[in-house]
Amino acid sequence: MPLTDLPLDELRTYRPSIRLPKDFDAFWDTTLAQARVASWPATRSRVATPLQTVQFEELRFSGYGGESIRAWLITPQNHTGQLPVVVEYVGYNGGRGVPGEKLFWASAGYAHVVMDTRGQGSGWGTGGATPDPHGSDSSFPGFMTRGITDRAEYYYRRVYTDAVMLIDAVRSLDGIDSDRIAVTGASQGGGIAIAAAALSHGVAATLPDVPYLSHFERAVELTAEMPFTEIVRYLAVHRDRIEQVFDTLSYFDGVNFAERISIPAYFSVALMDGIVLPSTVFAAFNHLKSADRAIEVYRFNGHEGGQTVHALRQAEWLAARMP
């Protein structure tokens, strides 16, 4: 695999100006206020598994429009006191999976919450269980172009709102330390974690891993692999909608969310990543307001990034900030 982007010394200082809508904050304030008006209390129910060291519960919470979203709540067996929490968002077209496949964070002593991404879960892994009841006008197969000509109807408006509402729900749970909540995820999950960190109250740290969904215009023009090419194919047909599409995407760009993040942040990037260009990751990272920030660079990896090596580094980094 070759390097896919700028040299590392240029990436370290890469801080592009991108579209920022004047009503960006107002749009998200209104969106979240509407979701909270429609919300209802989260529910949790024990899930039987043969595992002896962790406990699984299904968490159902109120997402966008008061719609029911599912998540796993995984905790160390027989723990005492209030647990710090890691909320994880999942990569593109994956789901929360089946009980037992995600054990790392609970094994490290955290309550681990894994959000099911609405409508996704059939591209890899072991599935999802949350529908997206909203339709779309014409779109290219996948999720990237659903509702893409209207910020109010765009698919990721619902997903980002779900992510924030999950944090609201987690803060209300018994046995949880609401002052020690971190958000993480890889690829799409990393992009969602950036948005959730910017839009939520009381998040203590964010750990986006090879995060997707940033610097859309560069990504769409230069990335040769899916899923950004979904937008390319859409615009190849809808030649008159280019400005309209990028205006919509500016409300969902990780760079604009990063500018609103001041909590500790630990990113990762892979320099041979053909799915998420390194410059799009650095564009978000370099716009952070965080005084405590770091980025782990995997020079000879693709979109898999650091995998378990990075997970162990994340655990050490987070333990120093949420003891």
UniProtKB/TrEMBL annotation:
- Its EC number is 3.1.1.41
Keywords, A to Z, come to: Hydrolase
Originating species? Microbacterium halimionae
Cite the residue spans of the region called Disordered: 121-141
Q: Which domain of life is it from?
A: Bacteria
Q: Name one GO biological process term.
A: polysaccharide metabolic process
- Gene3D superfamilies linked: alpha/beta hydrolase
Q: What is the protein name given in its UniProt record?
A: Cephalosporin-C deacetylase
| Gene Ontology molecular function | cephalosporin-C deacetylase activity
Q: Which residues bind substrate?
A: 92
List the catalytic residues.
187 (nucleophile), 273 (charge relay system), 303 (charge relay system)
State the taxonomy lineage.
Bacteria, Bacillati, Actinomycetota, Actinomycetes, Micrococcales
Q: Please report the stretch or stretches of sequence annotated as the Acetyl xylan esterase domain.
A: 1-319
Query: What PANTHER family does the entry give?
Result: CEPHALOSPORIN-C DEACETYLASE
InterPro entries membership: AB_hydrolase_fold, AXE1_dom, CE7
Matching Pfam families: AXE1
This protein's record includes keyword Metal-binding: no
| EC class of the enzyme, as a word | hydrolase
Task: Determine if Disulfide bond is one of this entry's keywords.
Answer: no
